[in-house]
TrEMBL record:
Enzyme Commission number, as recorded: 1.1.1.48
Entry protein name: D-galactose 1-dehydrogenase
One MF term in the entry's GO annotations: galactose 1-dehydrogenase activity
Organism of provenance: Duganella violaceipulchra
Keywords tagged on the record: Oxidoreductase
Gfo/Idh/MocA-like oxidoreductase N-terminal domain segment(s): 5-115
PANTHER family on file: BCDNA.GH03377 (PTHR43818), DEHYDROGENASE (PTHR43818:SF7)
Length: 309
């Protein structure tokens, strides 16, 4: 029997409580030993104000999960890798592509695991959809990701700041599914990003991609949605329509809903991370972040009404 991986969490907030703690508690591959967060603690665990303080005080930590906002992830990841710890990065893996490349190189040089986690890729519809599209070529795709920012991101100032990604914080989840299920690579042709007058990150985006063969992918992300929320991907194929709903929790083929396994995104992420650590491998995929970077590079900027909480 292998000993448990001694894990610490850095940046204790909403997603740690909602998902990381239950997933870790249910996985015997991990033993949670400490946390580091400026203001918050995990009940029953030694808590420290910074990752540096935690690593100096707690011997034997093997790995860390970095769950703070993306603008602050690189610094903590660099400290962890330099100290010889394996690293699980929440999504998005960083604020820029280049900082993730730097972490990848450092992890490789030190023979440590670096994992860019994309939780939506573990939604139950994703692998069945991928298999379907491998057998039935897609001819067009439509992504509709519309949610109410006031409901899902209350009091999250970082999300509106540069590097916080704005509406791409949920939108990148859609892009992580798109890049997983499509059999071909896509790239952005044109985009419009809507920035509130008083914010440094977009509240809405419309994106037009294509693949090398001209297959169009149209995506609409919007944070001003009230009432019904939409996290849908609709694909036309040589064999009719495929639809993923509820962020990949549901799947329809030709309008018929398919039976799926129960949602287990974070348990799956931690199983994957344990496997990578045990096998001495990394999993670094920046494809969703690259599309977001392209949107910021190519997108037309439109200033819209100021946003107030
Ligand atoms: P959050 O609760 O706003 O932030 C997490 C924690 O990060 C905070 O409690 C805070 O703890 C720390 N933090 C905040 N600002 C910081 C700063 N300037 N420097 C260092 N630490 C800071 O956010 P979250 O919703 O958990 O999201 C965190 C990450 O998980 C994001 O990248 C997000 O995309 C991803 N994620 C979120 C969800 C979700 O449903 N919320 C789902 C999947 C993935 P201290 O004040 O104690 O330092």
């Amino acid at each position: 029997m292998m000993s448990a991986i001694k894990l610490a969490i850095v940046g204790v907030g909403k997603i740690v409580h909602d998902q990381h703690l239950p997933a870790i508690a249910a996985n015997p591959d991990f033993q949670l030993v400490a946390s580091a967060s400026r203001h918050n603690i995990v009940d029953g665990l030694p808590g420290f104000k910074s990752i540096e303080e935690m690593l100096a005080a707690v011997p034997g930590i093997d790995a860390v999960s970095l769950c703070m906002p993306p603008q602050y992830r690189y610094q903590a990841a660099r400290v962890a890798l330099a100290a010889g710890k394996h690293v699980f990065l929440e999504k998005p893996p960083g604020a820029t592509l280049s900082e993730v490349a730097d972490l990848e190189a450092l992890a490789a040089a030190k023979s440590l695991t670096l994992f860019t986690s994309w939780h939506s890729r573990y939604a139950p519809a994703v692998q069945p959809a991928k298999a379907h599209l491998a057998a039935h070529a897609p001819t067009a795709m439509q992504v509709i990701w519309k949610e109410d920012v006031r409901q899902w991101h209350p009091n999250q100032e970082w999300i509106w700041q540069a590097g916080g990604l704005g509406v791409f914080d949920p939108g990148i989840n859609a892009l992580s599914i798109v890049t997983e299920i499509l059999p071909s690579l896509i790239f952005l042709n044109r985009a419009t990003l809507e920035f509130p007058d008083n914010r440094d990150a977009p509240i809405a985006a419309e994106l037009h991609f294509q693949d090398g063969g001209g297959m169009p992918v149209h995506a609409v992300f919007d944070w001003r949605q009230t009432g019904k929320q939409s996290w849908d991907i609709v694909v036309q194929t040589s064999d009719g329509e495929l639809k993923l709903g509820d962020g990949g929790a549901r799947l329809w083929v030709h309008g018929v809903e398919q039976p799926l396994t129960k949602e287990a995104e974070y348990p799956s992420l931690y199983r994957r991370f344990a496997g990578l650590v045990r096998e001495g491998r990394s999993d670094v995929d920046v494809a969703p972040l690259r599309h977001v970077a392209d949107a910021f590079m190519l997108g037309q900027r439109k200033v819209v009404d100021a946003f107030h909480d």
